[in-house]
Amino acid sequence: MARRPMIRKIKRNRPYTPDEAAHLTGVTPVTIRRWRERGLMSIPETRPAIILGCDLIDFVKAQQTPKQHCQPHECYCLKCRAPRAPAFDEVEIIVINVRSGNMRALCCECTTVMHKRIPLAAVDALRSEHGLTVTLRCERITEDT
């Protein structure tokens, strides 16, 4: 099942049964029943219930939380559920290939390890603009070692 309900497949002007709505959004029919209890509109006195596509789209969009974008020097902390600056202004860049790497830092609020993919061209900007201490590291295992 999908983590976020899919709304691209729903047609605005088409009516759906709960089973059809569940199939289109990628959730279970039980979830559709719970949504109806929480306010998803359906046509009254119909068996099975009929849900209009426009009501389903509006309900799903209202339930979704907006995406949070990080600044270049921030990482998204999964524990805090928010973009956070690195603790002690220190980050570690683990080089993946010639163009990109993984930025790893501690959250300034809860000290959880945070990760973010970053282009290696942006490393100098992190040092100069944001005053971060950047450590470059290659993490490759080869057969020679």
Q: What topology emerges from the helices and strands here?
A:
Blueprint: E1 15-16, H1 18-25, H2 29-37, E2 51-52, H3 53-63, E3 75-77, E4 82-84, E5 90-95, E6 100-106, E7 113-119, H4 123-130, E8 133-138
Parallel strand pairs: 5-8
Antiparallel strand pairs: 1-2, 3-4, 5-6, 6-7
Low-confidence parts: none
Radius of gyration: 23 Å
- Which range does the strand content fall in? 15-25%
Whole-number mean pLDDT: 87
Would you give an account of this structure?
The chain is α+β, with helices and mostly antiparallel strands. Helix content is 25%, strand content 25%. The protein has a four-stranded mixed sheet with strand order 7-6-5-8, with helices on one face. It has a two-stranded antiparallel sheet with strand order 1-2. Helix 1 packs across helix 2. The longest helix has 11 residues, at 53-63. The mean pLDDT is 87.
Quick recap:
By secondary structure, the protein is an alpha+beta fold. It has 4 helices and 8 strands; from the N terminus they run βααβαβββββαβ. The longest helix has 11 residues, at 53-63.
Keywords:
145 residues; alpha+beta; four-stranded mixed beta sheet; two-stranded antiparallel ribbon; 25% helix; 25% strand
